[in-house]
Design brief:
463 residues; alpha+beta; four-stranded antiparallel beta sheet; binds S-adenosyl-L-homocysteine; binds zinc ion; Znf_GRF; rRNA (adenine-N6-)-methyltransferase activity
Amino acid sequence: EGGGNMAASGAGAPEGLCGPERQGAGGLALLGLAPSAPSCPHGPALLFVKTSQGEEEGRRFYACSACRDRKDCNFFQWEDEKVSETRLAAREEYNRNHQPPFTHRQNVERYKNFVLLPLSKRRFCQECQQLLLPAEWEKHLDHQFLCDISTAQLKSPSQLLYPLENKKTNAQYLFADRSCQFLLDLIIDLGFRRVLSVGTPRLHEMIQSKASQEDFRVRSLLLDIDFRYSQFYTEDEFCHYNMFNHYFFGGEAARETCRKFLYQDSGERVIMVTDPPFGGLVEALASSFKKLMAMWKETEKEGHNNQEMPVFWIFPYFFESRILEFFPSFSMMDYQVDYDNHALYKHGKTGRRQSPVRIFTNLTPSMIVLPVEEGYRFCTICQRYVSSGNQHCEICNSCTSKDGRRWKHCVLCKKCVKPSWFHCNNCNCCALQNHTCEKTDAVCFVCGKAGHKRSTCPSLSHT
Ligand code: SAH
Ligand code: ZN
Ligand code: ZN
Ligand code: ZN
Ligand code: ZN
C-alpha cells in the first residue's frame, strides 16, 4: 500500500476480514467527552480506556482529541492522576503558546490590506503558509515564497495551501473537481440554500467562488481545524472547529455564528456536509455531529420536531455498520467519491481505480440521483441508484455490492460476499483463499486436536 490514512485503514485491511468490527481489537476504547476533561491546545481531551489482556477494568486516561500521532500533540494524563498547580500553570501557558500567531480577526484585517496591494507586492510564504504584507517580507527572506498572488488564487486557498497529509492528524484529501461539482449540483438539485461544510474546504471554496454570480444562491459556512483558512475567510464564513470534541476555538462568538447560520430561514434548506479524516473515532465524530444536528433542531420551526437536519457524511464503505450504529436513519449511497491528492483512489482516464469512499445520508435514497454517464443506474426494487457492477441479488433482495464490483451470494453465509472470497469451513465464514484461519482455542470433538472444528476434522475425511 502507498501509505496514507486511507490506505492504512482501508483498501488493504478489510479485504481479508469477515467484517470491519474486528478493527478495534486493540484493547483501547474511547469513552468520550468527560465534563471535567483537561484541555490541550486542541480543546478538551477525550477519555480513553486501555485494557490489557486478562484485565477487566482497564486504566482510563485523557489524550488529545484531534491528533492520534504523539508527534503532533503529546497531551496525556491518567484520569486518576494528581496534577500539581505548577504543572497546571505550565500546561495553561503551553496551550496559550500553541495558539496561532494571529487571531482570526487579525487575519481578516490582514486580508483586507493584502487585496489592496498591487499584484507585484502580493506574496505568499510557502514555509509559513501565510499571506505576507510588505513590512513582513524581511522576516521571510530565506523562505520559499510565491509572488503575484492573483484574486483567483485567493479564491482557491485549497490550491494555494499545501494539503496537510500527515496521516493521523489532518489527513487532508481534497475532492477531485468532478466529485466536488457532483456534490454541489446534487445539493442545488435537492433545493438546498445553505451548506454547513464540516471539514470540506474545497466544497466551501467552490460555493464561495460562485457566490458572486447573480443567480447563485447557495451559501456556505466552513468549520475546520485547519486555521490557515482564516486568512481567506471572514468570521461569518469560517469557524476554527474541532469535530472530534465539538470545540469552537473562537468561543461563544464562533458558536453563535454557527447557530445563526443554521437558524437562517427558520432552519430550512440547510444541509451539513462532512468529510472527516478516516482514522477511526467514529463515535467521537458521531457525537459532535449529533450536537450540530441538535443545534439545528433548536430552531423555532413547527414541523421540524421529528425531523433531522439533512446530512451527507462522506466516509469509506467499510465503516457502514459503525455509522449506522450511531445514525440508524442513514443509508449508504453507491457513489464513489474521488480525490485529487490521493493517487490510489483517483479515477484515472485509464486503469480506473475504485474509491472506497461513499456518501452516507439521512435523505431518502431515491432522491440521490447518481450520474448515469458514469455507469450508475436506478434499481427499482431497492429504490436507489447503484453502481453499474452492483447486481440485484434475488436471495438477499437487495443490491448488495459495497465496493462496486459484482458480489456473489454464499448460501452458507446467507449473504453476498466479495467476488474474491471463498467459503472457509474452518472459519465458518467467507474469506480470501489464502487467509490464515482464525485460531480456535477450543479443541476438535473428534480428534481432540486444536486448530479446527469437528466439521473440518482431517480424520473424518478418511472415512
Ligand atoms: N475532501 C474534503 C477535504 C477532506 S480532508 C474537501 O476537498 O473539501 C479532511 C478535512 O478535515 C481537512 O480539511 C482537515 O483540515 C479537516 N480536519 C481534520 N481534523 C479535523 C478536526 N479534528 N476537526 C475539524 N476538521 C478537521
Ligand atoms: Zn436492487
Ligand atoms: Zn445475496
Ligand atoms: Zn460463505
Ligand atoms: Zn479459514
